[in-house]
Amino acid sequence: MALKVERFACPGKGNGLRATHSVQAGEVLYSAEPLACCVSNKCAKDVCHSCFSRHESLLRCSQCKVARYCNITCQKKAWSDHKRECQSLRSVHPRVPTDSVRLAARIVFRLLAPSQLSPELYSLEELDSHLNDMAEEKREGLSKLSSMLQLYLQHNNPDLTQDTPTLHPLSLLAKVACNCFTISDGELQEIGVGLYPSMSLLNHDCRPNCVMLFQGTTLHLRSVRDIHPTEELTISYIGVLSPTRERRAQLLDQYHFICQCQLCSTTCLDPLMLGGEEEAWTPLKEAIPRLEMLQTNGNWEELLQVCNSLLAPGGGAVPGGNVYRLRVTDLALDACVNLAQWDSALHYGAETLEPYRQYYPAPHPAHAIQLMRVAKLQHFLGHLKDAEQTLRLAYDIMRITHGNEHALTSELIRKLEECRAEMGRD
Ligand SMILES: [Zn+2]
Ligand SMILES: [Zn+2]
Ligand SMILES: [Zn+2]
């Protein structure tokens, strides 16, 4: 099949990827398997290291005791990629290296079997490492990881990374840092990291015309609006629910460029994102790191308590569209769901929908997932008409961002049918 995308020299940005023909919203423009990937350490116990699906109980590799699989079939399929890794994991046991070190090692192992490599539009040699424009502190951090990588690889092939410049540990880790993608499940929860070299040609835009969706480890690049032939294809490297200054700072720090996209140049969303008095929203902004920690630790009671007091009316001079208020509201929703406080969950969820609609004018997976979350609460609490309406809005987005074949879209359609059947009974 002819490729729908091609590489080109993009003025001011180096390389880029563009469409070879006119594209309609919702088209799959490229699908790829990773050059290498691994399950994130934080979900190592819940996700199969072969097919990347989530399971309650998984079979453990008896040798390294780290890798886990759905069953023998998944384990057998993964063995050629895991064999050397297994040896390395055993050699550093009980330590488990960071995700980036494990991914870098998997790239090295993969390159030892060049016959298994698939053709790419962009090669590992060409990927940017940005080692020269990196802050000293960051370089030091990478040097530490680089020592870990060398130690980790020692038992396998101590010389390999020394002889090949692309595989020099420091440069490889720097390339991994700015080029790897987070592999997420249909609900956008992180499950792993992977390197898809051709996709590193995609430049960033805070309002991109494409999104990436994963099925297992397969990456699909999908268009979210109609695109002219030869128009540049873009994705967003970061979450975009932040004001321009924060988006630019994050992009500069992680990806070493100053975003000149239309949204950043015009700063047109900032008045909405920073709505309300600065004194009123500063406490919300400052509380977020602590709230996220409570979320990570599953400390739901405390999380909800703090969110409730921050969002209480009276202190509520901050409009719903303010991004810090929106983040706190999302955290409150998560806490309520985990504490099975459904009415409060729906209250907080419903509050987020208008800001999401404003911030995601083009179809975006995060918007669809949010709608679906709220619709499930509405359905559960018997607000059938609201649920049906919310599900329809979610479907309009998801058929573009996920496609009709995606498991989550099928789930949504089932939910919609269920809802309609129940309404018919009343
Ligand atoms: Zn599996
Ligand atoms: Zn193992
Ligand atoms: Zn931007």
Tell me what the structure shows.
The chain has 426 residues and is mainly alpha-helical. It folds into 2 domains: 34-181, Annexin V, domain 1; 271-425, Alpha Horseshoe (Serine Threonine Protein Phosphatase 5, Tetratricopeptide repeat), CATH 1.25.40.10. It has 15 helices and 12 strands. The strands form 5 sheets. Strands 3-11-10 form a 3-stranded antiparallel β-sheet, with no helix packed on it. Helix 3 crosses helix 5, helix 10 runs antiparallel to helix 11 and helix 12 (342-359) packs antiparallel against helix 13 (365-380). It starts with a strand and ends with a helix. Bound molecules: zinc ion (ZN) (3 copies). One zinc ion (ZN) is lined by residues 48, 50-51, 53, 69-70, 74. It holds the Pfam family zf-MYND. GO terms for molecular function: histone H3K4 trimethyltransferase activity; zinc ion binding. Its EC number is 2.1.1.354.
Q: What class, by secondary structure content? A: mainly alpha
Mean pLDDT value: 93
Terminal-residue CA separation? 51 Å
Find the CATH superfamily of the largest domain. Answer: Tetratricopeptide repeat domain
Rg over alpha carbons: 23 Å
Share of β-strand residues:
5-15%
CATH-defined fold name of the largest domain = Serine Threonine Protein Phosphatase 5, Tetratricopeptide repeat
Which small-molecule ligands are present, each listed once?
zinc ion
Query: How are the strands ordered across the major sheet?
Result: 3-11-10
Compute the number of structural domains. 2
What's the architecture of the largest domain in CATH terms? Alpha Horseshoe
List how many beta strands DSSP finds.
Answer: 12
